[in-house]
Amino acid sequence: MLSITENYHFYMLFYISKNVLFGDDIMYKSKFLRSVSFLFISLVISTTNLLAEDMIEENIKIINAAQADVLIERNKDNPEFIILDVRTSSEFNSGHIANALNIDYKSSDFKDAIGKLDRDKTYLTYCRSGRRSAKASEIMLELGFEKIYMINGGIFAWDKANLPTTQ
Q1: Rounded distance, CA 18 to CA 1, Å?
Q2: Cβ count near 58 (within 10 Å)
Q3: Of all residues in the chain, what percent carry a pLDDT higher than 90?
Q4: What pLDDT score does 33 carry?
Q5: Closest alpha carbon to 115 in 135, 145, 86
Q6: Cα separation of 50 and 3, whole Å?
Q7: How many Å apart are CA 115 and CA 140, to the nearest integer?
């Protein structure tokens, strides 16, 4: 499915070609070529951005709280599965998913701490609402982690689904 920007580009290309190519004025044909070049470059940039977003979404699997609960249950005895809470320690201590590891996204050594983790393991990340865990997951991708799940809506969504937390 094309984005609004891409649809606009195709529409403009059609409009310009219809109205200019069939005219006799050389000046308009020159403008047409510049316009087509601009639209083509814009379309390539838009497509490149979409492909980059798709790549991130393919590598970070965004799941809801119920799906996360099932994933945790299936992996409860799996040492290769890590639940990663990226909230502050005070947020973590106020209630977290059982067996979660806490590495504060806001800490100055976050990237170093994440870098010490085993890149071959599977990680389920979450925070309060999903913003920090999204950023943390992207950093993990940059560092070479490949198996990343993220709870959409964070601990808020987890609590709203009436799923258990521990202190």
Answers
A1: 24
A2: 8
A3: 65
A4: 58
A5: 145
A6: 9
A7: 8
Q: Which of 148, 132, 1 has the alpha carbon at shortest distance from 62? A: 148
Is 151's pLDDT higher than 80? yes
State pLDDT tens for residues 1-30. Answer: 554 545 455 555 555 555 555 555 555 556
Tokens matching residue 88: 């502050």
Which has the closest alpha carbon to 150: 58, 79, 75, 52? 58
Q: pLDDT of 35-77, one tens digit each?
A: 555 554 544 444 434 433 444 456 899 999 999 999 999 999 9
> In this structure, are strands 122-126 and 101-102 parallel, antiparallel, or unpaired?
unpaired
pTM of the model: 0.67
Q: Report the alpha-carbon distance of residue 166 to residue 85 in Å, rounded.
A: 13
Please report how many Cα atoms fall inside a 13 Å half-sphere around the Cα of residue 96, on the Cβ side.
Answer: 22
Return the structure tokens found at 130. Answer: 């999903």
Q: How far, rounded to the nearest angstrom, does the alpha carbon of residue 31 sit from its chain's CA centroid? A: 39
Query: φ, ψ for residue 86 (rounded to 5)?
Result: -105, 20
Determine the topology of domain 64-160 in CATH.
Oxidized Rhodanese; domain 1 (3.40.250)
